[in-house]
Amino acid sequence: MAEHVKGIFIAFACAFATHIFGAVLSSFTFRKRSLKERGIYHYGMILSNAAFLALPLAKSVVGDEGIFYCSVYVAVFNIVAFTYGIYEISGHEAKIDFKKLILNPGSMAVLIGLPLFFLQPDIPYSIEYPMQLIGNCNSPMAMIVFGTFFANSNFKNLLVKKELYFASLIRLAVIPLCMLGIYYLCGVRGQLLVSMMISSCAPTATNTAMYAAKYDNDTALGSEIAAQSSLFSIITMPVIVAVASVI
After folding, report:
1. Distance of alpha carbon 113 from its chain centroid, rounded?
2. What are phi and psi of 48, to 5 degrees?
3. What are the distances in angstroms from CA 210 to CA 39, 84, 216?
């Protein structure tokens, strides 16, 4: 149990470090573009598909412990998405609401889930079984969401738009590989390292286009970033996760 408590704090530190590194790195990119266009690229580079794609993959590769650590990453993702992410994708028009640091779905889920994980209460079958069924929907839902974004994307832009290739390179390779080195130097190993790498090397978050629509930005561009990075992640994610598994 003490090892899991320590792992939680390390996972939180790793997740925050990854998002901070991504925010700093992205701040040097697309400076000549409008604030709104730049915001979509920055959002797409910083925030990964840590929930829909990383969680089912962590379940397959690491097991329940992987889901536990990746859920911590998802909580940090939500904190960043609901604050800095919205600030960026709105073109700096939306103010950062610090109440959403806690009052967001990801953080609330972790706050509820942590006591259940440590206390291990006997949950009635009538509650546990439906929750398992809902959890099992995560993987197919990820594929449905990916297919929707891919179908709504401009296929020509996916192939010829150099800005998309640059954003995908940052999201899928530069940030995760830099963080892999930082994690390793800080002594993070084993299942925790693999879990953090699964979350940090995932493609662009699927809510990029949804937030773009909500804040009157370019939904097509948001879909294109999510679609292209998801397509290339088929190659990059297995390689990065394999490296994290053997070092």
Report:
1. 19
2. -95, 170
3. 14, 16, 10
State whether the Cα torsion 226-230-231-237 is positive or negative: positive
Q: Are 233 and 172 in contact (CB under 8 A)?
A: yes
Could you read off the pLDDT of 184-216 as tens digits, one per residue? 999 999 999 999 999 999 999 988 988 888 899
Q: What share of the chain is helix, strand, coil (3-state, %, to 5)?
A: 80, 0, 20
pLDDT in tens, 155-185: 777 788 999 999 999 999 999 999 999 999 9
- Residue 130, token pair as written in the block: 């439906």
pTM: predicted TM-score of the whole model, two decimal places: 0.87
What is the three-class DSSP state of 154? Answer: coil
182: enclosing H helix or E strand: helix 175-185
Residues 78-122: pLDDT tens digits?
889 989 999 999 999 988 777 767 776 767 777 777 777 777 788
56, 142 Cβ separation under 8 angstroms = yes
Three-state DSSP state, 91 = coil
